[in-house]
Amino acid sequence: MNYETKLCLKVALLLFPLFVAIIRLIAVLPAVGSFSEQPLFSKNAKSLSDVPLSVKGANIMILLGSGGHTGEMLRILSNVDMSNFSRTWVVSSGDTTSLEKGKAFEEANLLSSHYKASYASLPRARSVGESIILSIKSTLLSFYETIRTLRALPQLPSVLLLNGPGTSVPLAYILFGMKYFGLCKTSIIYIESLARVDSLSVSGLLLLPISDRFIVQWEDLYLKYHRAEYYGMLI
Q1: Which is the most buried residue in 43, 140, 199, 207, by most CB within 10 A?
Q2: Structural domains in the chain?
Q3: 206 to each of 19, 43, 59, 126, 176, how far by Cα in Å?
Q4: Mind listing the pLDDT tens digit for each residue in 105-160?
């Protein structure tokens, strides 16, 4: 075997794992297979309440993002029947207000459910007004603590429901990474805030490629981003 042939074989062996990794990414990345245009008001389109869970008792994880994000999420969930699924409510560390609102929602709407709710707290990926340098440290800490929290759960979520803010990014990407390696089958649903009229939030932009369903509440955003779903205002 001559030198050129040996070199080609070595290069092929080195590139093969990269090729396999790219093929796997294409297979699990929702953005890749979503190029067909969707009618604006299609009667056949799935509604938000069609949460893709097929087995009773599966887990839905809901991130309450504090402040207006929490209020929006709870108003949206008031139209969704979650009684047949276990729930994991996630809040940012120190956000006792959102935690209490999540518990109050459970007491008001899901006391008759046979499936229990659990609660988890995650460090913020970036605090308001925090510098870029400090945010790198806090983001890494958020990734680490998120992995620890997920490992401690008795059941990984079948659906992750998000509407921002920054804490949603580490949580979503970790679960997407686990799905990449075949460790879970979590569907990621992101609902952009009603406050975003003309452009997506930073969290929305980061999660657009990996979200299985990406829902906006303004027609202009639907027309601007081809993967977006639009059903009008949801709150």
Answers
A1: 207
A2: 62-230 (3.40.50)
A3: 24, 29, 24, 14, 12
A4: 999 999 888 898 999 998 876 665 556 666 677 778 888 888 998 988 888 999 99
Q: 142: buried, middle or exposed (CB in 10 Å: 19+, 13-18, 0-12)?
A: buried
Phi-psi region of 211 (alpha: psi -120 to 50; beta: other; left: phi over 0): beta
- Nearest Cα to Cα of residue 128 among 174, 88, 69, 72: 69
What is the rounded average pLDDT of the residues 159-177? 90
Of 180, 177, 172, give the one whose Cα is nearest residue 207.
Answer: 172
pTM here?
0.84
